[in-house]
Write a structure and sequence with these properties.
Elements: H1 2-30, H2 44-66, H3 70-98, H4 105-117, H5 126-133, E1 141-142, H6 146-149, E2 160-162, E3 165-167, E4 177-179, E5 189-191, E6 211-215, H7 217-220, H8 230-236, E7 241-243, H9 251-265, E8 269-275, H10 279-285, H11 291-295, H12 309-341, H13 348-353, H14 356-363, H15 382-398, E9 402-408, H16 412-415, H17 427-436, E10 441-443, H18 444-449, H19 468-488
Parallel strand pairs: 1-4, 6-7, 6-8, 8-9, 9-10
Antiparallel strand pairs: 2-3, 4-5
Helix pairs in contact: 1-2, 1-3, 8-19, 9-15
Length: about 500
């Protein structure tokens, strides 16, 4: 009996030691959730609920077990081996089955949701699809965005060097096809118009344009077919609409788009689709570093891009090919570097010890999501945002257009039940600035609140761009507002 008793005591002491180390480690990590610049998918409360409290309870249980009767120790020992064995077996299963998507939590979530619903999901990655489609369409391109500019020295974020000087394009190569994304199970390509935007060709030649849309990838139409975009739905409602959306655009790029193209198109309405999650981030991290974009705050500044499309096409083709090479090189360098320098803490074995994937499944998110800025505490440049909106309004009114801002909410509001949180993404500050500037707001958040299932506007109810339903609902709201405005005029 003494030998068995000693065995159980030693076992429980080892378990207590291991759990104490894990508990101390978990406590040390809680500071990450409270820092200004860090925000992860699982909230601090979930971290507390799923890790710290269970660890504390287990430590208490095993300390108590040391002083328990022999029979109780036997049952606790069996319970421990069974439960922990099952946990680590499940972790091993997820390691084997989910390893390919471990570093792409969004793609993993979409793929898993599609699988559960029985929806086919193309599992090829971007580079595989690009290579496959180029067999039949050799001229297929990747998407141009302002974030890509920062990858090319020395001009960086400011523009692309051309024989006539530095140019900052606002659209893609004219009449081109680009590979976009896959959020619905099917990879989407976009056919661009004569100025490199996701519109049917020939709209720039129309005499009357009802609405000019500016904004980021939501305005461009990620990740749906062309007739399912915001502009596509509005066209089905009988309006002549041109979208100047490009992924990564923020308030200053939207201003630049209005300045360069509205003077030719003379729309009746200009609508800036403001996406709350990253437009202020794009403004602060990328746009304010561009002298060309800042120059658009001067009411007379222009690059005259409308007249320089051939020149833009030439430099963009070279630029995009270079970006592709850089992307491939960086992926290979990162893979080799990770293989050389991976520490124990970064190793797959350490992740397995922590039950990283299993905890992610139980919490409902996915572990390993990249750490990002805190949507409550980051400090945006609201003064520059105000100036960009004011300049956009003035540029629009100069060509006889009425300027609106459509407020596009992020998935977090519904996925984490923060619908009415005005502090989230500085919603209250943004709306106050728009009110001060007398800019009418088309608030999509208020419309979604009335839905029985707000998450239905996202692909498979996951964190992504809006699906066709979401874009259609936004288009209906825009149509209602614009129709009412036309009646008043």
């Amino acid at each position: 009996m003494l030998q068995r008793l000693n065995f159980y005591n030693v076992f429980f002491l080892l378990v207590v030691a291991a759990l104490t180390v894990a508990f101390i480690y978990a406590i040390s990590r809680t500071g990450m959730y409270l820092q200004e610049e860090i925000y992860v998918a699982a909230s601090f409360h979930e971290y507390l609920l799923f890790l710290i409290i269970p660890l504390f309870c287990l430590i208490t249980l095993y300390i108590f077990s040391i002083f328990s009767r022999e029979a109780a120790k036997y049952y606790i020992f069996c319970f421990t081996v069974s439960i922990f064995g099952a946990f680590y077996a499940a972790e091993l299963y997820y390691f084997v089955t989910d390893k390919g998507d471990y570093h792409d939590p969004r793609r993993h979530g979409l793929k898993q949701a599609a699988k559960e619903l029985g929806v086919p999901f193309d599992e090829r990655n971007f580079n595989e699809v690009l290579s496959d489609l180029r067999r039949d369409h050799p001229s297929l391109l990747i998407n141009y965005s302002q974030s890509a500019l920062a990858k090319i020295p020395p001009s960086g974020i400011d523009g692309i060097q051309s024989p006539t000087g530095l140019i900052r394009p606002l659209g893609n190569v004219s009449n081109s096809r680009i590979l976009a994304c896959n959020e619905s199970g099917e990879w989407i390509t976009m056919d661009n118009d004569e100025h490199g935007f996701n519109n049917p060709r020939g709209l720039f030649a129309k005499d009357s344009i009802d609405i000019l849309l500016v904004g980021d990838s939501f305005t461009q139409g990620y990740c749906v077919k062309q007739d399912e975009t915001i502009a596509g739905h509005l066209r089905k409602l009988g309006l002549n609409v041109i979208s100047l959306g490009i992924g990564g655009n923020g308030p200053l790029t939207a201003l630049a788009s209005i300045a360069e193209y509205a003077r030719y198109l003379r729309p009746k309405f200009v609508i800036y689709n403001y996406f709350e999650k990253n437009d202020l981030i794009d403004l602060g991290s990328l746009e304010r570093k561009s002298e060309i974009l800042l120059s658009y705050l001067n009411p007379n500044f222009l690059q005259r891009l409308y007249e320089r499309q051939d020149e833009i096409d030439t430099i963009l083709l070279t630029f995009l090919k270079r970006i592709e090479r850089i992307n491939v090189q960086r992926q290979e360098q990162a893979r080799l570097e990770a293989r050389r320098t991976k520490t124990f803490r970064e190793s797959e074995f350490f992740k397995w010890m922590k039950l990283t994937r299993l905890r992610g499944k139980l919490i409902g998110g996915w572990p390993g999501a990249p750490e990002q800025w805190n949507p409550y505490t980051f400090e945006p440049d609201l003064d520059l945002f105000r100036r960009a909106i004011q300049a956009s309004k003035e540029r629009s009114e100069k060509v006889g257009a009425r300027y609106f801002v459509a407020y596009l909410p992020e998935w977090d509001r519904y996925g984490y039940d923060r619908v009415d949180d005005k502090a989230l993404y500085h919603r209250g500050d943004v709306l106050e600035i728009l009110q001060d500037l007398d800019v009418p707001v088309i608030d999509f958040l208020n419309r979604i609140k009335a839905f029985p299932d707000p998450l239905a506007i996202f692909p498979f109810r996951k964190d992504a761009h809006y699906n066709s339903t979401g874009y259609g609902e936004l288009a209906d709201q825009i149509f209602t507002v614009i129709t009412e405005q036309q009646k008043k005029q």
